[in-house]
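Example S7 (structure tokens).
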């Protein structure tokens, strides 16, 4: 098959045309949807900045889709929740968010981001930071038995250039154990994750110990401010929901595959109004479970910092090896996942996906066929379309992945797909 990597959306081969949909969204929501789809602003707001999870979509996009297709009190499900953008926005808008992910790091992040930290929690963390961070010295002794003996998690951060970061992280992980609650300790682990990612991931020059300490304090303060804003928003939405719901419903973040989600009793008995997600991109190399240090040397340090177990290779998180002919494993996994999602959906459920393809000319038609086999039919809004194929595409300028692609970056163009159950 001839490769058309990086081709314009108009050049995508003609697959079966999606069903034209009579608009079910207001003109105002149409405008907000387009603004969200094409948003290029840095990802920020609420707790979204706690960590840079790969391939995140904009909170503005999530917000606009949730507003267009749901009402307060209804349920939004993200089967590949990643850093939790959908779940955070759903909770902030008074919807129940349910998320699943096979990556324990993603679940950890989503849980921290959706935790409502009380004033007393934030005060305790602030006091801890003001005292403990200054004690992080590369010359201090660190009892490694207190932060886990598995030295392989520190792979590639023990070099002459990086050992100082490793030592400061060890000390930080020891110091956080003095915090009283598990929620507070997870918050600080997340702050250490964010700071270590800043210091190590894809950086040419490793910062000094002093720069690391300063950045850690800055990150903790910013995260506390964001957590307070999120808590206030949740309090307001909970008050507004009081007349509609018997009790506030907490977000649900599950460490599991979407395959078989219909067997999860907490999910199966909940009517799903919206599935909003960004699945792994076919043929695109993304490291969801590693950082790259000084070139392409991978480290599993994120799992060590978050106190998690990492035992899977990159293809586990991306539905299969991107170099596999015809990407058979990818489409098999996608079919299985959406078949299960179909079983917890009804005719009112809307599925919205933002996705990119390394070779859209054949991968997009096959993806649509896979969705059809899983029980979903594509529909489109002509008023949103910006290409000849009747869909809405967005360009992602200067997109950078961890490794070069096979040719130019077709994945720099993302498409938004709308589906419903086949009647």
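Recovered sequence:
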């Amino acid at each position: 098959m001839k490769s058309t990597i990086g081709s314009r959306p108009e050049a995508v081969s003609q697959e079966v045309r999606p069903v034209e949909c009579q608009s079910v969204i207001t003109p105002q929501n149409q405008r907000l949807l387009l603004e969200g789809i094409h948003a290029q602003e840095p990802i920020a707001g609420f707790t979204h900045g706690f960590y840079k999870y790969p391939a995140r979509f904009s909170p503005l996009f999530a917000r606009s889709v949730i507003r267009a297709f749901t009402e307060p009190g209804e349920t939004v499900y993200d089967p590949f929740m990643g850093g939790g953008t959908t779940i955070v926005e759903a909770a902030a808008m008074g919807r129940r968010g349910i998320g699943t992910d096979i990556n324990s790091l993603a679940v950890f992040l989503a849980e921290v981001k959706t935790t409502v930290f009380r004033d007393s929690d934030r005060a305790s963390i602030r006091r801890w930071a003001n005292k403990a961070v200054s004690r992080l010295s590369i010359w201090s002794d660190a009892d490694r038995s207190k932060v886990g003996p598995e030295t392989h998690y520190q792979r590639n951060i023990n070099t002459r250039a990086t050992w100082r970061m490793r030592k400061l992280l060890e000390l930080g992980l020891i110091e956080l154990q003095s915090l009283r609650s598990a929620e507070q300790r997870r918050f600080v682990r997340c702050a250490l994750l964010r700071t270590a990612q800043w210091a190590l991931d894809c950086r040419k020059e490793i910062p000094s110990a002093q720069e690391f300490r300063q950045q850690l304090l800055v990150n903790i303060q910013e995260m506390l401010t964001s957590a307070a804003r999120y808590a206030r928003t949740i309090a307001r939405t909970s008050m507004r929901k009081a007349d509609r719901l018997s009790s506030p419903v907490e977000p649900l973040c599950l460490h599991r595959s979407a395959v078989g989600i219909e067997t999860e009793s907490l999910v199966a008995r909940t009517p799903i109004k919206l599935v909003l997600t960004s699945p792994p991109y076919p043929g695109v190399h993304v490291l969801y479970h590693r950082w790259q240090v000084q070139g392409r040397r991978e480290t599993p340090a994120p799992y060590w910092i978050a106190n998690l177990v990492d035992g899977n290779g990159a293809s586990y998180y991306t539905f299969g090896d991107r170099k596999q002919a015809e990407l058979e494993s990818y489409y098999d996994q996608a079919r299985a996942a959406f078949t299960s999602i179909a079983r917890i959906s009804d005719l009112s459920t809307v599925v919205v996906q933002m996705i990119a393809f390394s070779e859209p000319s054949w991968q997009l038609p096959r993806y649509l066929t896979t969705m059809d086999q899983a029980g979903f039919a594509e529909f489109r809004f002509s008023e949103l379309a910006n290409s000849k194929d009747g869909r809405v595409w967005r360009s992602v300028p200067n997109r950078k992945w961890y490794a070069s692609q096979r040719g130019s970056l077709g994945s720099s163009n993302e498409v938004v797909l709308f589906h419903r159950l086949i009647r």
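Notes on this example. The chain has two domains: 9-114+250-285+322-421, 125-229.
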